[in-house]
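Hi everyone,

Forwarding the result from last night's run.
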Amino acid sequence: MSDADERALIRRYRTARRDPQLAVLEGFHALKHALRFGAEVLEAVAADPEQLRALATELAPDLGSSLAERTAPATPEIVAELGPQAPRTGVVAIARRPEVDLGSVLAGQQHEPLVLLEDPRTMGNMGACVRVAAAVNAAGVLTTGPNDPWHPDALRGAAGLHFALPVAAVGGELPASDRPLVAIDPGGDDLRPAELPPRAILAFGTERYGLSAALLERADARLGIPMRAGVSSLNLATAVVWIWILITIIADLFRDHTLSGWAKAAWVLFLVFLPFLTALIYLIARGSGMRDRSIKAQAEAKQHFDSYVREQAHSSPADELHKLNDLKEKGAISSEEFDKAKAKLLA
């Protein structure tokens, strides 16, 4: 690479950090997740192509050799110039941000909650929240305030998992929708995960100031995380993690058809009155089976959708739209999958 090429490369990456249409991915895991979830990667560089190839073989065999093949070599000194802090793996890339239709996200019918971060201040916390939300298949992450949820520091904190679910800034107040708005507020009623409504928007405020009075006024419910006396608040990312642990446990309970109704009721009862201890015991006692049950549920949802696709050729467009809408309402397909399949039907 000539000196002119190196200068042009540095300019492109510095410009991309300020471009609202682009995302700068710092580190191997960010690039891996972006590719795995269908990102349009425009270019990538690596300080050590052999190390990248070894990492791809060990940690991303599903991507084959494509990850290494699309990455150009660059000296460690040049990679260090592409951002404030060079990633330990020496890999940096530029990808195009996916378009997020806020109306479609709010109208989505999947039962999993949507996360709203009101005026988040710390990029790392924002990224950690995205990472947790992606891991538990949340409906999306929305933010208010001036900070960009796609900032490179937030992307680093999320390990590139922004591409796994809708992530967007709402650009002001949250638009009205038919989703119930649940404010996570220390002054609210004790959180009862079994009582959370489906499709809820879970709104989290900052650690110091909490949620704004305007958002609390709009909320359909105000729920607080039960905490030991003397503990005033939780870090934003910690609060999101804790809420989702409870939601995941409740979902796993009702997903497990081998448990009796009495056993499920007992677990829910203990989660209500001893949430921290019960969650810890549940994860220790039943954690090994949670992943298997989740994979099975996802496979069943995919099977329903595949069955719909196979039947599509033998029905009228009106029948197919009706079946497609039923799948969306049952949560078997996401709003994005519904829109894509609908567009194919009407094409």
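Residues 3-96 form a domain with the 60s Ribosomal Protein L30; Chain: A; fold (CATH 3.30.1330.30).

Cheers,
N.
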